[in-house]
Request: fold
Amino acid sequence: MGKHREALRERLIYSSPRRKPGSSSLILLDSGFRRNDGYGILQRFLRHKRRSIPRSFIATLTLVALCVPLGQADEIRVLSGGAAKALVEPLAQSFKAASAHVALVEFQPMGPLTERLAKGEAIDMVIVTSDVLERLEREGKLPKGIGRPLARVGVGVAVNENAPLPDISTAEAFTRTVLAAKSLVYIDPTIGTSGKHVATVLEKLGIAEQVKAKTTLLKGGYVVEPVGRGEIELGIHQISEIMPVKGIRLVGPLPEELQKYTVYVAVPVPGTPHGAAVEAFISHLTGPAAGARLTAAGYSAP
Reply:
């Protein structure tokens, strides 16, 4: 309010070329900039009218314009799969600057995320994999046809930044590399999307039992961090969750015959009281700013 009052004092004059002797009036002058709040609209209204208005009336209008905003900035709660973090987190920050709305985003594996949604927690929007979305639609927890695809990401292999790059160019080469590694880490298959796929791949290759004793299963987050610290030799995770980790090198994606691409989809939760803000956030996540980040963060277009 202090800044508004000061601006008002600088832009009001107590005179008019049409006033009668002894009368007092206010005319708001053009300041050279445009505001879109109530004060700005009042300023333009008075400028266009260009006539004397009683002082008491303009004072009342000014107080209303300064105190009452035209739009309400909302705070929305979003649950997102962890592999979307490298894309969504910076866009949530830029969304506030672009819209004045605030998106509070929590990142976690699909298992805990869907459990919270099923419990009826107050959530405005979710970002889930297309596979999980199909299940939630079948179960009636989310309506069909309202999701917006954001990005696609594959599974990759990581080693320590000081280690030589192993060969994973084919299924056979990948098998040899996994068997030769002294230790291996991936996300718990009961919790994370990529962990479930890695377990399936190891079974398919017939080496699941051989690597079981040297495998560490983590519950979430950047599961290849122990590789960056030199504690584990080989990590397998979604590429978008490998690239931000310090101390690691991305060897590359899994061979195409072993690969699984995951598409992340943004979905409004039915009944949210902040529908307009949610739609604005989804538009931001699918706009030009998002497109510029996809490749750098390890994603491709959905």
